[in-house]
Amino acid sequence: MKYNFDQINDRKLNYSAKYDELKLKYGKDDLIPMWIADMDFKTAKPIIDSIINRAEQGIFGYVSRPDSYFESACEWYKKKHEWNLKSEWMSHSHGLEMNDQQLKNFMNNKVKVAFGLWYGKESEGYIRMNVACPRSVVEQALIRLKTAIDKL
C-alpha cells in the first residue's frame, strides 16, 4: 500500500491538542508544534475501514484478545526487528491502576528503574520508557518491571 507522507493535513479546529493548546502552553499559536507525540498523517484506509466496521456493529464494550491478536504482534516484531517472540509470553492489561505518586513509588522502590512520568494532568498513571539505549539495558529494565508486577 502506498502512503503519502508529504500530504499536508490541516488539524487546526478539529480538537487537536497539538495545535489547540499551543497558545495556552507557549503563549503564541504561530509555532511549529513539536512538543507532543502526535502525528499529522491521515490514518491509512484499511484502518479507517476497520474502525467503521466495528462502529457499525453498535456495541462498544471491552473486547477480548484472540490468539491471532498476539500472533500478529509476534509476526510484526519478527519482520521489523528480527525478534522471535512467543504469543504465550504476552498478555493484555488495562493497567496497574495507580496514580502518579503510587506509580512513581512503585517504579523507584520496587522496579528500581527511573521512568518518565510527566505527561501532564490528563495522563496520570502513564509512564514513558526511553529505549534509545543498549538492548541489554532495556531487557534488564523489562525484567525488573515484570518481576515487580508479578509480585503485586
Total domains, how many? Answer: 3
Mean pLDDT: 81
Q: Which structural category fits the helices and strands?
A: mainly alpha
Strand portion, in percent? under 5%
Largest sheet properties? none
Order of helices and strands: HHHHHH
Report the count of strand segments.
Answer: 0
**Any idea what the CATH superfamily of the largest domain is called?**
Aspartate Aminotransferase, domain 1
| Low-confidence regions | none
Seen as an oligomer or otherwise, the chain set is single chain
The top level CATH class name of the largest domain: Alpha Beta
Question: Can you characterise this structure?
Answer:
The model has no long low-confidence stretch (mean pLDDT 81). By secondary structure, the protein is mainly α. The chain has three domains: 1-61, Aspartate Aminotransferase, domain 1 (Alpha-Beta Complex); 62-92, no CATH class; 93-152, Aspartate Aminotransferase, domain 1 (Alpha-Beta Complex), CATH 3.90.1150.10. The termini are far apart. It has six helices and no strands.
Which helices and strands occur, and which strands form pairs?
Blueprint: H1 17-20, H2 22-26, H3 45-57, H4 67-81, H5 100-111, H6 135-150
Helix pairs in contact: 5-6
Quick description:
The chain has helices at residues 17-20, 22-26, 45-57, 67-81, 100-111, 135-150. It is an all-alpha fold.
Keywords, separated by commas or semicolons:
Aspartate Aminotransferase, domain 1; mainly alpha; 6 helices; 3 domains; 152 residues
